[in-house]
């Protein structure tokens, strides 16, 4: 027994060292910005889906509303401007974040004045504008997180990724439970709830004001990569803003390897994306109440995700990003099969709780590992632009491909079990691809 305890000492020291990584005030700002990043998904995701479902829209129509999420897949197109153009207030990162948060507040106030029955097109348009503001905010938030942590600090990158993930799910799951409780327990209509969403986002703007702007000399970093030519300042500005961030990524990694990284990032979460887009519709059709959705899908999932986000950060620090991604991918397929079981058994809250716990584990670990992996691939001179390029591919399955999820369920004649089995099978190609590029991932992680 004494020998066994002695063998555990090095492991305990490693764990304590990993925990000390989180003892940094920068991570509080990263956590709060994570909340601001996840919260808009409530406005144009689960709340909007529940509103449209209560108004009697079909599964296909609700699924197609998810096209507005395509904004997150194309935000890399204007991300160079977020890297290059400095707002006249609060700094490069904070200025953009604050401006986009203000836009979201105003748009929520506008949404509260609409009805899905008579203003459906305006609802879709305002939802699209919220998505654009949110996607632009994400560019600045991701740039803020990467700029805060030294690239050589691999433990810091994993810790920052876990705090960002915990924050995102606090905004999406913790705060996202409030609208569903209000819908069941009060006389508030869904448009009324958007007034509350605007107020919460206004409070989150205070966190932006108290954060410390990261001090990065982006021009000095840029000079190391590119040199001024005899071309005009306008041509130089356009080249370094719109071309160099993307060309540097491919030249640094090589076209083949860079394309491999991007393909894996795109494939990894397609199955989860299909499931997530239809989850609220599934809960309502299978017989769960709004309070059940709030308690299990939001609140329980929130706490589970926070716990496993922190644990996922520790695992990545200890065992590496590849193992974190592989573990999360296998569990992702298993959690999708649990949803298929619910479709067979009916609205069992105990089974839903187990499913949410497993799903929260997979979502947290996969996101922490993916965020850390993408952060490692970024050059700090173009942190927002390059992260946006890769992150947009990560959510492309959720935003573009998954918009057809309602059509898939309808084509299966409402067979939810078969639908969830298909989403589980979608994970397999990405795991095979992950295994094939594992050596390259380990090499990037070692720097």
TrEMBL record:
Transmembrane segments: 30-52, 64-83, 95-114, 120-141, 162-181, 193-211, 257-280, 300-317, 324-345, 351-375, 387-404, 416-437
Main localization (coarse): membrane
Pfam families named in the record: Acatn
Location in the cell: Membrane
Cited InterPro entries: AcetylCoA_trans_1-like (IPR024371), AmpG_permease/AT-1 (IPR004752), MFS_trans_sf (IPR036259)
Entry keywords, A to Z: Membrane, Transmembrane, Transmembrane helix, Transport
Membrane topology, from the record: Multi-pass membrane protein
NCBIfam families (UniProt xref): 2A0125
Protein name: MFS transporter
Organism: Alteromonas gracilis
